[in-house]
Amino acid sequence: MEPFSPGPELSSAAWGAEMVVLHPKDFEAIREAVASLRNQATVLLNVSALPENQLQRAVDFMAGAAFALDSQQVRLGEHVLLYAPHYVQLNQE
Description:
The structure is a single chain. The protein is α+β, with helices and mostly antiparallel strands and 93 residues long. The chain has one domain (16-85): Translation Initiation Factor IF3 (2-Layer Sandwich), CATH 3.30.110. It has helices at residues 30-38, 52-68; strands at residues 19-22, 42-46, 71-75, 80-85. The chain has a 4-stranded mixed β-sheet with strand order 1-2-4-3, with helices on one face. The longest helix has 17 residues, at 52-68. 22% of the residues are buried.
């Protein structure tokens, strides 16, 4: 076994190695992003396809979920956000 690979009892998501890229078209799809974050995956979320009346609600909902799950949030662009578990190192330059 490689020195830094997870054992058979751990999936890649369990130690933060999984990255999920989502481009939701409605608010209901945001639940998938929260579920992925809850499962310790890093989530790249592009909300540009959301209807204008759901956009702020989705961003606020994800921010609350990130806070509740002890995760980090980084805005990468106007409609692109990155959420990661607290132990994932994010370098912003």
